[in-house]
Specification:
By secondary structure, the chain is of the alpha+beta class. The protein has five helices and ten strands. Strands 1, 2, 3, 4, 5, 6, 7, 8, 9 and 10 form a ten-stranded mixed beta sheet that branches. The protein is globular.
Length: 259
C-alpha cells in the first residue's frame, strides 16, 4: 500500500529535509516515527527538499508499506513518535502511481519579512528582520520583470542539481499588513535557493539600494554573482503542494502565522 502524508515543521533546528546520518533532519525524524508505527523500516519521499532553517506547512510525502493501519492510527501513532517541531496533519492512501515529487503540478512558497526598526523576540527565526523601510510598490514593479518563463541562472545556487535553469514562475504576490511583508511565489518547480534569491533582489529594490530595472538586468545576466544577497532561510515557508484532482490530496487554504 502507498500512503501519502501532509507534514508541518519548523525548520529552525533541523539541518534541512534530506536525511543525513550524523545530523538532525526532518526526513530522518519522520522515517524513524513511521517505521515504529509500521513495525518495519520505511523510507519516505518528499515533494521537495527544504534547506536548513526553512519551514513547511504542507510538505507532502509518500511511503510504501505492507502494514495495515487505519488513517487515524497512522496519524496519531506517527505524531506520538515525532519531536514537537514536526507534525503529520493528514494521512491518505493513494494509488501506486502517485509520487510526492513527480506528480506535483504546483508548489507555493511564502517568504515573510519583518520591516521595522526594532528586532522581534517572538518572530526570531520565523521572519527575516529588515530594518530599512521597504516600499512594496517598488518590489511589485521588480516582480513584474521576473514572472513568466525565463533562464533563472542568476537566481540559482552554485550547488543546484537541476538539469535546466529554465523555469516558469506563475506568480509573485507581495502584500503588507502593518510591519509585516509577505512574498507569495508559485511555480511547478524551483531551483535551489531560487525563492530566497528572488526575495534578496526584490528587497534590495524595495529599500532603495537598487533601481527597479535591476531585477531585469540580473535576470538577463544569467550570472549568480550579479544577483546580490540570498535572503536568510528564517522567513521561508513551503506553504502548499498541489496535485491532479484524481489523487484527492488535501491543500492548505490559509496561512496561520499571518494573514
Amino acid at each position: 500500500m502507498r500512503i501519502a502524508l501532509g507534514v508541518e515543521y519548523a525548520g529552525t533546528h533541523f539541518c534541512g529535509w534530506q536525511y543525513q546520518p550524523h545530523a538532525r533532519t526532518v526526513q530522518g525524524e519522520l522515517q524513524k516515527a513511521v517505521s515504529k508505527v509500521a513495525n518495519h523500516e520505511i523510507e519516505v519521499f518528499a515533494a521537495g527538499r527544504t534547506d536548513t532553517g526553512v519551514h513547511a506547512l504542507n510538505q507532502v510525502v509518500h511511503f510504501d508499506t505492507d502494514a495495515v493501519r487505519e488513517q487515524r492510527g497512522w496519524l496519531l501513532g506517527i505524531n506520538a513518535n515525532l519531536p514537537k517541531d514536526v507534525a503529520v496533519t493528514w494521512v491518505r492512501p493513494v494509488e501506486d502511481d502517485f509520487n510526492a515529487r513527480f506528480s506535483a503540478v504546483k508548489r507555493s512558497y511564502r517568504y515573510l519579512i519583518l520591516n521595522r526598526l526594532s528586532r522581534s523576540a517572538v518572530h526570531h527565526q520565523r521572519m527575516w528582520w529588515h530594518h530599512h523601510p521597504i516600499d512594496i510598490d517598488r518590489m511589485r514593479a521588480a516582480a513584474e520583470q521576473l514572472v513568466g518563463q525565463h533562464d533563472f541562472s542568476a537566481f540559482r545556487a552554485s550547488e543546484c542539481q537541476a538539469k535546466s535553469p529554465i523555469k516558469t514562475l506563475d506568480k509573485i504576490d507581495i502584500s503588507k499588513q502593518e510591519d509585516c511583508i509577505a512574498v507569495d511565489v508559485e511555480a511547478r518547480s524551483f531551483l535551489h535557493h531560487m525563492v530566497r534569491n528572488l526575495v534578496g533582489v526584490m528587497t534590495a529594490i524595495g529599500d532603495g539600494s537598487k533601481p527597479v530595472e535591476w531585477a531585469g538586468e540580473v535576470l538577463r545576466s544569467a550570472d549568480r554573482s550579479r544577483g546580490g544577497i540570498t535572503a536568510p532561510p528564517d522567513g521561508l515557508y513551503l506553504v502548499d503542494v498541489r496535485y491532479p484532482e484524481q489523487y484527492s490530496i488535501p491543500t492548505v487554504s490559509g496561512f496561520p502565522v499571518l494573514w
